[in-house]
Each structure stands twice: as structure tokens, then as C-alpha cells.
Amino acid sequence: MSYQIQVSKDGTYIIGKITGELTRDTAQQLAKEYAEMIESTGIKRILNDVRGVRDQMSTIGAYDYAYKDVKSIGLPRDIRAAILADEGDRSHHFQETVAHNAGYLVKVFHSFDQAILWLFDSKAC
After folding, report:
1. CATH of the domain at 35
2. Which of 27, 31, 60, 98 gives a 20 to 30 Å CA spacing to 81?
3. Is residue 8 a part of any domain in this protein?
4. What's the domain count of the chain?
5. Domain extent at residue 19
6. Interatomic CA distance for residues 107 and 118, integer angstroms
7. Torsion angle of the four alpha carbons 105, 111, 116, 118, in this order, in degrees rounded to the nearest 10
């Protein structure tokens, strides 16, 4: 497994720390575990920590993941997910675009503090 999932210490968001290659297969497995954790905890805020990891999905793979995989996995549409990437790493920005276009609230950040603030900002879109 090239990631770890846990609930934050304060119990308000789910943390997914990716430590290996971020491929479509990895993203599918991660989404399945997120869906299970959301169902068991009711927590719908997710911090995807991809610092040190570049997105390896192709354009078509990212599109299919956002439009097909996530839907078939049953990830709720009312989640809010922050992607925390390294400064200068723009490899995750297309994932933000296709997720947003597919109806999910996803945003890339390069600051942990900004990502957490956004996760809980009721006015953020």
C-alpha cells in the first residue's frame, strides 16, 4: 500500500498521506477507503497529502477517474477535498479541474494552513 489513511487528531477531517506513485489504481483504492471511512464516521472533509509525490495519471486517466471511477465507487458528491502538494508542483492541478467539472469540491494547496482553512470555510467554492 502506497498510502495511509487516518482521521485527524481533532476528529474533523480525514487525512490521506500518499507515499508512493499516484496512479489511477492508487487513486481508486484510496477513494474506496475514503468512501468506507466517510460512511462509518460521517466525516466529509478530506486532506490529500501528496507532498513529495507527483500525479502520474494521464489526461484520459484523470478524466475517467473523476467521471467514472469515483461515481462507481460511491464517493459522496458533498465532500470537500484539499490536495496538499509541494510548492511548484502543478501536476495535481488537472485533477482539481476535472474533479470540479465532475461536481466535486476539490482544490490544490501548497500550504497546510491554507488547506485546512479552506476545508472548513463554508463560503469557499
Report:
1. 3.30.750.24
2. 60
3. yes
4. 1
5. 3-119
6. 9
7. -40
3-state helix, strand, coil in the chain (%, to 5): 40, 20, 40
Q: DSSP 3-state assignment of 50?
A: coil
pLDDT tens, residue by residue, 77-123 = 999 999 999 999 999 999 999 999 999 999 999 999 999 999 999 76
Give residue for cell 486532506.
Answer: 47
Paired with 106 in beta bridges are: 81
Contacts for 112 with CB less than 8 Å, ≥ 6 apart: 84
Residue 125 placed within a domain: no
Q: Phi/psi at 43 (nearest 5 deg)?
A: -80, 125
d(CA 42, CA 25) in angstroms, rounded, equals: 25
